[in-house]
Amino acid sequence: MKNYIADTYKQVRLQEGQRVIEQFLLACYFHPGLPTKELARKVLLPVPVATAIKKELIKAGAIQQGSGVRCTAEGEAFIEQKLGYGGLDRELYEKLMGDDEAWKTELADLKAEMETIFAGRPQVDVQIDQSKCTVETSLRRAILCLRHQSLVGKKILCVGDDDLVSISLGLLLKRLFPEKQQRPEQIDVVDIDERFLQYITDVSKQNALSVACHQADLRQPLPKKLQGGYDCFFTDPPYTLQGMALFLSRGISGLQKQKGLSIFLSFAHKSPDFTLNMQREFVLAGLTVQEVLSHFNEYEAAQMIGNKGQMIVLTTTELTTPTIKHPFLKSLYTGEETPSKREYLCKRCKRSIQVGAQAKIVTIEQLKKRGCPRCKHQSFELLSRRRAQD
């Protein structure tokens, strides 16, 4: 079968990259009969560029003109067999693509299923800046991936995944394609935390999801088997500038060398000066900002960031490259950059306990697990927090 996208790109060398040809073809498939001007609007292209793509796809036999533009039988077969849309629940797909709130009713049972899965997640390790996003947030990330046409038929990398985005992606695909069939998607997770990797592996096996896990310290370059093959990646990195730059770099090294690929970056809302430095990092990496969704992410018990974070959708360009290619030896996590010590009060016996990197008990999670050194009670009140050097 012809590869209409690659063949058309050879003939029409678009600055936007070949992904826009795929989007044009999908628009013809899902909205047959649209005029060229309307197709151009849907894929955000100038009309002359859309016209050039249309002419080449007609010449190749993928689409035809007549009462608007629509796919030929060969074009439909290519989309269903090669791009992976065969067997799609089109009604559900079109509702999710067209309505930001549709998932609340259409996927209510899936959300309930995920609530059970998420309840069994391992305890977060705050020393490596883990925090638990809500089930709703994880599911909305998967739907965002779908709406950017980066899910169906794609290879997806999760650079760190304590938010179980891989599970949300896999379960959404099962819902979109209800017939049991061999799917082309591949979802890979790379993380340092073996507890989360094992949990994701177990859940994936129980639900027959195409998710594979790989243990690695991202201070080191991405394992070679994960380099250069993915269509998009998700990351929710440490909320330091160097942490963001490192996780972005490792994710970029996993992407195909292609313009127009999507990167889904979750990050805390920051000050204007910090945001400016973030944007400089994007420019240095050759990325453009496609979309910023404020308060998109919600986290459980993450008071330090107000329980909310933003989703930044980035897009690759001709100049995209990792800014960090070698082992990373500098401070990475928030606790390394600004170490702090905290004083907690046991709610039962009123004993004061020091917690921090330089104390016997490093995190509040460890304290709760061990219990008060005097009475073993597991409920505490934060009395004070200050920098370790103060």
UniProtKB/TrEMBL annotation:
Q: Which InterPro entries match?
A: BpsA_C (IPR002723), rRNA_MeTrfase/Polyamine_Synth (IPR051720), SAM-dependent_MTases_sf (IPR029063)
Every copy of the N(4)-bis(aminopropyl)spermidine synthase C-terminal domain together lies at: 112-307
Q: What domain of life is recorded for the organism? A: Bacteria
Q: Which GO terms describe its molecular function?
A: methyltransferase activity
Alphabetical GO biological process terms: methylation; polyamine biosynthetic process
Residue stretches in coiled coil? none
UniProt entry keywords in alphabetical sequence = Methyltransferase, Transferase
- Name this protein carries in UniProt: Putative methyltransferase
Organism of derivation? Brevibacillus antibioticus
